[in-house]
Amino acid sequence: MAKKKVLVATGGGDCPGLNAVIRAIVKRANQEPDWEVVGSIEAYNGILKDPMELVTLDSKAVAGIHVKGGTIIKTTNKGGPFNWSVQSPDGTWQSEDRSADMMERMNRLGIDSIISIGGDGSQRISLALHEKGFKIVGVPKTIDNDLASTDYTFGFQTAVQVATESFDRLVTTAESHSRVMIMEVMGRDAGWIALHTAIAGGAEVCLIPEIPYDIEKVVARLNSRFTNGRGFAHVIIAEGAKPKDGGIFGKKSAEVGYENVRLGGIAFKFSAELKAAGLQADIRETVLGHTQRGGTPIAYDRILATQFGVKAFEMVLANDFGKMVTYKNNDIQSVSLKEAVEKYSTVNPDAFIVRAARGVGISFGD
Ligand code: F6P
Question: What is d(CA 271, CA 266) in angstroms, rounded to the nearest whole number?
């Protein structure tokens, strides 16, 4: 009898731990004699393209990949089955709904169900596919840690570790030159990476989207480091941080099918604001960018990702579709995709972790 097939896709920005999820799905599926795992290359592009780009994910394909960054089946944060970009003869781009075609292709290939590993955008697509009759399980991923239905997403702790190691390196050079160092981290509209790194590294100032900053207050805190004899200081700024009277610093991308506003570079704008507000010290800016997403996942993320992968396949086995795997209260659980995409998790300014940061002298510029 032909084996049952589950399609695995990774969508959205990559994130350390994706390969550990893929490996866990395959290893668990291999314990079921009548199942096999198929990977769609570059999210759903693999199944929607002609010729299709699909790979059989067997034990050989996934051997040892849990330590590897990125995703062996590639990813994209553009387009998707409901928003497939097609170029017209006049050069303009239109988008097409290819979901019916995708269902037809899956039936033709004998693919029973889907495990979609992705962030909020990918899980919105999962929900829409589920509403069209696809049997689908979601697995959350993002370094931003901004999904409310899960306490942590894998990749986040690795991003914080990378950022903290970079921060530690900036400390010695800041001290040698008596400078103010500004380090920009990712996170989109959530300040999680910035907040955790500021506490782990010991920054004087942490600027996050959830607490708009007052430049005068930041200057006062930085100047205090020079008047109290320390003579150097550090600012961690989240890419989505904003001043009290201003908006987010981003731009629309020219890349076809890329819907997100591109963030990045606020460190330089903020540096100019500090100068304009009268900060005398020399300033240097570091933008960590995609180093936070690349490279090997730390142990925590490999372990979380492995649990997510096993759980996702077991949900497929149990016909438990239309849901996303979550990590809540130290337990691997699941929620409906609808609930999963409803709420974002941003930093609550009243949470204890913010109080703890303030308690060790970190200013949020408020
Ligand atoms: O959502 C993850 C993330 O790394 C954000 O922190 C960042 O703003 C964005 O993706 C960058 O996306 P891209 O890889 O498309 O530049």
Answer: 8
Domains of the chain, by residue range, sit at: 4-154+297-328, 159-293+348-359
| Protein residue whose Cα sits closest to atom 8 of ligand 1 | 188
What b-and-e string marks burial along 111-138, b requiring 16 or more CB atoms within 10 Å of the CB?
A: bbbbbbbbbbbbbbbbbbbbeeebbbbb
**What confidence score (pLDDT) does residue 259 get?**
81
Task: Choose the residue to mutate in 143, 156, 239, 292 for probing ligand 1, maximizing ligand atoms within 8 Å of C-beta.
Answer: 143
Residue 14 annotated in active site: no
Global pTM reads: 0.97
**Alpha carbon separation from 90 to 10, 85, 86, 94, 97 (Å, rounded):** 32, 14, 11, 11, 20
Q: Which of 233, 221, 219 is nearest to 177 (CA)?
A: 233
Q: Find the catalytic residue in 14, 120, 144, 301.
A: 144
> Do the domains 159-293+348-359 and 4-154+297-328 match in fold?
yes
Give per-10-residue mean pLDDT for the chain (366 aa): 95 97 98 98 98 98 98 95 94 95 98 97 97 98 96 98 98 97 98 98 98 98 92 97 94 88 96 97 98 98 98 98 97 97 96 98 98
CATH of domain 4-154+297-328: 3.40.50.450
Distance 13 CA to ligand 1 centre (A): 6
At what angle are helices 266-276 and 215-227 packed, to 10 degrees? 70
Our answer on whether the CB atom of 76 is closer than 6 Å to any ligand 1 atom is no
Which CATH superfamily groups domain 159-293+348-359? Answer: Phosphofructokinase domain (3.40.50.460)
Ligand 1 pocket residue status of 188, Cβ below 6 Å: yes
187 Cβ inside 6 Å of ligand 1: yes
Compute the distance from residue 82 Cα to the ligand 1 centre, in Å: 21
In whole angstroms, give the CA distance from residue 312 to residue 318. Answer: 10
